Amino acid sequence: MLHAPSENRDQNLPNAIQAESESHPSKEDTTYYNTGVQYFQYHLSSNKTIMANKGKKKARSKKRATQQHQSSNDFDECKYYANLGCHIANVARCRVEAMKKHPWLLGIEPFEPNDYVPEDIAHIPEVAMNDGEEDEYGDCEMSLTLTNIKDTTSILFVTVYDVDLCGADGKILTSGWTYTTTAKNTTTQRKCTTFIVLCPPQTFVHLVTLVPNQTIGSDTERIPITSWSQIEIESDVQQWSFHPNVKDEHPHLLHFPFHGNEEEAVNEDQATKSYQCSQSENGNLTHFFHGNYHAIDFACPIGTPLYSAINGIVVEVKDDGGGGQNKNNTTSTNEECDEIKEVSGIAARNLFHWNSIMIQSTDVETSDPLFLEYVHIQTNSCAVKVGDSVERGQFLCRSGSVGFSPEPHLHMAAYRSNGVDAATVRVKFQRINNDDTRESGLDSADAQSFLPRVGQWYNHNGLVEANSEGK
Ligand SMILES: [Zn+2]
Question: Full-prediction pTM beyond 0.90?
C-alpha cells in the first residue's frame, strides 16, 4: 500500500539545501549502501522526465552565466566545491531550476508507483545503476541514479571511487580525494567523486554516466570496466531536517577565532590576517539542516592557531581523530591490523569521524545558554581539557581537516544546548575596532558586529576588501 505524498512536498524550502551532515549526524539513521551488488533498471519512458537536452546545451550555459552575474556576491559555491570533487545538486526546491543550475545532471524523473509491481518497489535501491541499456535517445550509457521513493525529502551523500564520471554536458566531473591516516602514521590518498543531493519525495535523480573505456585494478593487471558492480560506491542517506527557526539569533557576540589575546603585542601580521568564509549560514555544501544551518566555515591552513570566541568552560574535547576505525570498516579483532587514526577529504564515510571542541559561555544568562563548537580541528592539538575555564582570545587548539572536509577549514557552530540533536543559532562576531569598519552604509548595530558571508574575507574588524587580503 502506497502512501499519498505528505505535506512535506509543499514545504517551503530555503534557497539552499538542508540536511544532516558534518557535526551532529545520528548514527542510527545511517545507511551504508554497497551498491556493487545492486542493480536497478530505471524507466525512461515517462514523458514527465526532465532530461538534459544535449542540443540546447550552448544556449543554456550562456543564460546561466548571465544569471550568475546578477548575484550580489560573485562567489559560486557550487563551482567552488565542484573543483574540490563535491558536486552539489539541490533538486528539492525546483526541478527545472536544478537542471539549469547543474548542467551535468542527466535528468530528474518523478517516481510513478503504478509503473511497478508492489513487490518490486521494496527492492528499489537508493543508489541505482544502469549498466548500459539503450535508452529512448539511442544512447547506451552506464548511468548512476539516486532514488527517493519515500514521502519525505532525502539528503544523499554518494561517493564513487577511482573512476572518471561524465555529466550531461559531456564534461568529466572534477574528482577529489579522501585521505586515511593509520595509527602507524602512514597517510594514503584515494581518488573519489562525491555527490550531495537534496532529493524531494518520490523522485529519481539521474546523476552521471561513467566515462567509457576505463580500466580498474592494480598497476600490473588492469581490467576493463563493463559494469558498475566493479566500482566501489558508498552512500549516506538521511531524512532532511528543517531548521525550526532559521531567524533564531543569540544576542551574545563572538570574538574572531583567529585572533589571540597576545597577538597584537607579539605579532601584528597574525593579528590582521584575514580568512575567507568558505560556507556561511544556509550554505549549499553542508549547512542546510537543523544542526548545521547557522554554521560558518573559514578556509585556513592545517595548524592555524584557534582562540576562544567566548569566556566559558570547555564541555567537550574530541581530538583523537575519531580513531578506532578498522581499515576495512569491519569488526575484525586481528591485532596485526593497522587501525585508522584519522580520515579527511570528501568520502561519505568521513561524515562520522571528526574532531571538535565545545565551549559553554559563562557570559550569558543561564536562561539563555550558548554553546560554541569548533569542528575538524587538528588531531592532538587541544591545549585545554573538559572542565577548564577559558577566556576570549585564549589559545584552544589548531585547525585541521579531520572528518568530511573538502579542504582544510574551521567549521564553527553555535547552539542553545549541547544535546546531540540541537538546532544551531546565529551568533554574530564583534568588531575589535568600531571606528575602522571598512564597510560603508553600516547602521549602529552592524558597526558593532558582523556576520560572515560566503566568498568574502574577514579579520577581527569584519569584512576585508577583496584586493587588500592580508593573507
Ligand atoms: Zn561547515
Answer: no
